[in-house]
Fold this protein.
Amino acid sequence: MDPNTFPSYRGELEYVCQGCGVRYPGDRLYYACPACSGVFLLEDKAFRRLQETPGPVWRKTFDQRRQSSRPDLQGIFRFYELIAPVLEPEDLLYLGEGQTPVVMANSELQGRIDQPLAFKNEGQNPSASFKDRGMACAFSRLQSMLRTGQHDHFLTICASTGDTSASAAMYAAYAGPAILSAVLLPRGKVTPQQLAQPLGSGARVFELPGVFDDCMRVVEYLAEHYPVALLNSKNSWRILGQESYAFEIAQWSGWDVRNTAIFVPIGNAGNISAVLAGFLKLKRLQIITQLPKVIGVQTAHADPIFRYYEQPEASRSYAPVQVKASAAQAAMIGNPVSFPRVKALAKAYQRLAGEQGFQVLRVTEQEIMDSTLLANRFGHIACTQGGECLAGLRAAKALGMIAPRDLAVLASTAHSLKFQNFQNMYFQDRFPEEYRITPRPELINAPQAIAGTPKTGGDSRAFVRETAQQIIAGLGLKPG
């Protein structure tokens, strides 16, 4: 395989219902199974042809493509054969997504946690969240359908806790006038920064009463009864794009993910589904020889999947929960759309990696905020979902889920600047009672006001001396 040419391989994708197992051709858009309303995963019927290429050849190819200057082989599409092997080069939409850095924690933070750890900074994607991986793939599929004349325009629609809407609106704006964007948000439950993003991209924004689950029900109704393109993770093309997260971690690790634990916040469960699916593909192709541990994390304020796996395996039953307010806003989902995918993929994963290969744990809101501020105090740009993962790591250590030598890779799903209001609420002790968060004094920081009035001319020297003395006192400086 020449890493400098676009791949010649073309697969044959089909939808596989995770409820009843019925399969549908991949040449049109499906969101829910017509037979049972279940969710889909897209599978490549020709995958065995990929298995004819040895694992070392795949590793070399992907490593060489990483250096390519071709837009259609950059970012997530350097893994073209594993993600979107039915699309042509002119279909692919690349805005700089993917290739986000994995940043090792410094020695002091690792010492505090007593564990090797790193953050994968998904906030360095174009719209400042991991959602861009899935959107790049989903919008590339829409562009291919426009190119081939299957449609002459699309109205895309999504429900969102903030990041999905920002990403969908940005990609629609870039794609051009044939693709329009509408987003549904829960009123008052999206940060001002996240609300500003789809508005700035020109999307039609609708604020609904209730929570994300209410928005999702409306979006599902619209997708069922009207010709709209659904862009939530119910869209299986989104899952394919998000598998690149797993591929990039494996590549960063030199394709050796033994003794590695991947921590993923669950939210709507699309990302953890993609992570499981991605590592399973790498194992089937012998690109990696052993699967890493995958640990999903949920807040106690929205924990249906934790509750499911907490039950004895023989008698497990799934039930949605009523969510409470969470600082990790993307976690505020009481009925994750992708739970059936998690259930099926986790079963396959545990067959190969053992029962400990996939686990789910629960953390408190206090632990989420304390961990977010701790991570950023040591030079990271962790969002509250990143804090949720660090809280999960600490819980996993306490429960003996990981070994002392395991490298923990934590997902910081969005840029910390999207969630500064939660930091400010913490510093100012303004969290409503429902969050159950009490600020720890050692994590609080606030500006110190300096008294005085700036002066000009000869009086300016006095102002400088008086101001400097206040700063000297505040810092406790001694003459050198």
The first helix runs from residue 47 to 51. The chain has 17 helices and 13 strands. The two ends are 64 Å apart (CA to CA).
